[in-house]
């Protein structure tokens, strides 16, 4: 029997999807602050979504064209419509619902609710049999418990504040906040928009896994989604901002930098990373890392921007990490299931030498 040799390279290959998803959440953390500064400066969120994905598509196009020339399958009408719907869900609807809900809720409430995407995705994946659940298997039970524990951590961060943690030093960076407006976090309209946003993102993640089976070229799929999403968002923005043509004008300021960062990192690189991890590990694996962004934002806001940090956020973050670890441990059991399935198929096809067709 061949003995496994553990090396840094082996560990890197084994945990590469985990590493890139953590780095993706770091990228989303900086995206949050840069885009928020741009919106505080007066930029229209809907124009931002459009310009961001125009740039993302333009940046990703040469990589997709040359690197996936032999891998890219023929684009049929049915596949084109599938990518169109994928773009509509993940870019046009989800992102614009996200920014629309900010008008009726607070960023804290929205960020906390955003973390429920992992639980919603897990439920949909189980219903569609994308996720394997066997209550006799400890790893399957771990996936269920991990999802519930993560959700409990999210609710703790949302519902329980606790005492304020004392700032250790003065803020290193000052970000001008928008003037406070009347926000009703419990408003029906804001809640419906937020729930719709989370559900749309969940469906988008699930649909990615299905589309990748028929179109396994992640760079090309990212490019198509960005260009289609940009066109769809442009039409939506023209309707919403029809009385404000000046919203399309971008100066040499934070608005331009937010579009550049959002296009290259947020719209291009991070979507590609999600597609790659979705193909390797599935949609639930990708979404369970979302709470890390909220944790990173809270930490950065506390240590760099001098914002308030509550004890409830620390406790909730600890619970989320516990649930995340438990769920990932449960997900490792999927490898054993995949291996057994491959062995059975080999025997069935006569490759194992036991059963000839």
Automatic annotation (TrEMBL):
Residues that span the membrane, as ranges: 15-34, 46-67, 79-102, 108-128, 140-160, 188-207, 219-240, 246-272, 284-304, 310-330
Compartment(s) where it occurs, according to its Swiss-Prot or TrEMBL record: Membrane
GO cellular component: plasma membrane
Membrane topology: Multi-pass membrane protein
Chief location bin: membrane
GO MF term set: transmembrane transporter activity
The UniProt record lists the keyword Calcium: no
UniProt keyword terms in alphabetical order: Membrane, Transmembrane, Transmembrane helix
InterPro entries: EamA_dom, EmrE-like, WAT1-related
Start and end residues of each EamA domain: 18-158, 189-328
Coiled coil ranges: none
Family membership noted in the UniProt record: Belongs to the drug/metabolite transporter (DMT) superfamily. Plant drug/metabolite exporter (P-DME) (TC 2.A.7.4) family.
Protein name: WAT1-related protein
Species this protein is from: Medicago truncatula
